Amino acid sequence: MNVHYDFxxxxxxxxxxxxxxxxxxxxxxxxxxxxxxxxKCSNCPLKAEDSPHCPAALAILPVVEAFGGEDAYxxxxxxxxxxxxxxxxxxxxxxxxxxxxxxNMAVSGCPILGELRSMAIHHLxxxxxxxxxxxxxxxxxxxxxxxxxxxxxxxxxxxxxVARNQKLQLVNQALWQRIHAVCQGDSNLKALLxxxxxxxxxxxxxxxxxxxxxxxxxxx
Length: 220
Known about the structure:
By secondary structure, the protein is of the alpha+beta class. It is 48% helix and 13% strand. Strands 2-1-3-4 form a 4-stranded antiparallel beta sheet, with helices on one face. The radius of gyration is 18 Å and the shape is globular. The chain starts with a strand and ends with a helix.
């Protein structure tokens, strides 16, 4: 897995990131806000003696440092290239960072966010809320199909998907608290809030979201 994000600004700046399927190497002196016990997620299964720093915080650290002072609504040209195709879009920093941060977190090594890894492998940049719901449900149902083939009891009612996204909400909230004090601008914060709202839509209003998708699939 290799995904390249290239940001080009109107003032000539060019910032690039590469995301692989492996956790990013830890810097020599990570900032205090990345320590595991700083704003630790209430449902985090890790222990500080085994993992002194939060894997998700370390994963998003380069992005937070690069764009911590940016305006969320500033326009930027973004090119995303993976092993199969290239995506290009002129969009807001908020939307671009939501996409990049979500990918970074999913492959960070966090045991909770790691449940999104299968979606990260088939990363879709700039996904809308409807696309997020469609992909979340589709991936989850495929997992249940393979569970049935393995002789396990599948969850066709999506109860596990709702529970998964409830756990993700707690992680997103804690990550937002972590970076709140270090971001002079609001692009990273709004991106995380946007990502958080998508996870919320799965756990809080999944049924209504599915009804909307059903109407569109049926051509209503």
